[in-house]
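Run log // design_07
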């Protein structure tokens, strides 16, 4: 029976959400609902942007269960992305010719457009607060389930709203469990700046480079710095760091996992 759920898991990765729902329904009708089938169903609803159905599934679960909190995080993140895309679309439409908008039956007054964007922005702020609250809750209940990316998103939300003390509390709480987290150390340094919400991109790059340079393990340090330099188009420095990583590995230096590298920006 589990092979059917394995198949549904593959379909989920391929974004075949309706097929996932069909496979899960067949499994539950033929056998029984279990944690895995219910999780697959909820993730399929989230992926398909069927948020009402996802919320109904989540309402059946124990709210303080770590898996439930993780699913709620995925749901809120999907809502955030949907609203951000809608706001961006509205902003693009502002530059469209009024005649074209009229032909499409979409012409609205300037005040109506502004009100719509304001409402969506308010929704976005609310979802961001929900996301930060869920990360905080999960950190308290099951810290091993909290990803660095979730901490980064929550911190950015707090910083954008000027809630620096709440951001510091989250970072310090995460560092209690993961003292070597480069993401948490990065945000700790950002939050120590005089105006955390005004830190320039150039200064953020300096902080990131400093944090990565302080990684104790030589292989992990070199690989992460290499990725940082490559991302910032400093290819000679990147090549030098990757050579250092290879040299340390061949010399049998400190144990390190070259795969433990961030390919995206910390910001």
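design_07 sequence
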């Amino acid at each position: 029976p589990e092979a059917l759920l394995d198949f549904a898991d593959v379909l989920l990765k391929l974004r075949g959400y309706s097929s996932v729902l069909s496979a899960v329904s067949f499994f539950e009708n033929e056998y029984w609902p279990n944690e895995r089938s219910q999780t697959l169903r909820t993730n399929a609803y989230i992926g398909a942007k069927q948020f009402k159905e996802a919320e109904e599934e989540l309402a059946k679960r124990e709210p303080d269960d770590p898996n439930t909190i993780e699913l709620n995080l995925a749901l809120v993140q999907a809502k955030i992305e949907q609203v951000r895309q809608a706001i961006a679309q509205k902003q693009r439409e502002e530059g469209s010719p009024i005649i074209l908008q009229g032909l499409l039956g979409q012409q609205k007054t300037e005040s109506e457009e502004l009100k719509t964007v304001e409402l969506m922005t308010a929704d976005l702020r609310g979802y961001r607060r929900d996301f930060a609250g869920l990360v905080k809750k999960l950190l308290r209940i099951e810290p091993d389930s909290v990803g660095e990316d979730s901490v980064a998103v929550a911190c950015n939300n707090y910083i954008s709203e000027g809630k620096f003390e709440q951001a510091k509390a989250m970072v310090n709480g995460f560092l209690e469990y993961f003292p070597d987290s480069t993401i948490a150390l990065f945000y700790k340094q950002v939050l120590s700046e005089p105006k955390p919400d005004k830190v320039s991109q150039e200064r953020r790059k300096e902080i990131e480079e400093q944090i990565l340079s302080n990684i104790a393990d030589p292989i992990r340090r070199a690989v992460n710095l290499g990725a940082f330099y490559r991302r910032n188009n400093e290819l000679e420095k990147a090549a030098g760091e990757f050579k250092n990583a290879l040299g340390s590995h061949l010399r049998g230096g400190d144990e390190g996992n070259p795969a433990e590298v961030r390919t995206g920006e910390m910001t």
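Residues 212-267 form one domain.
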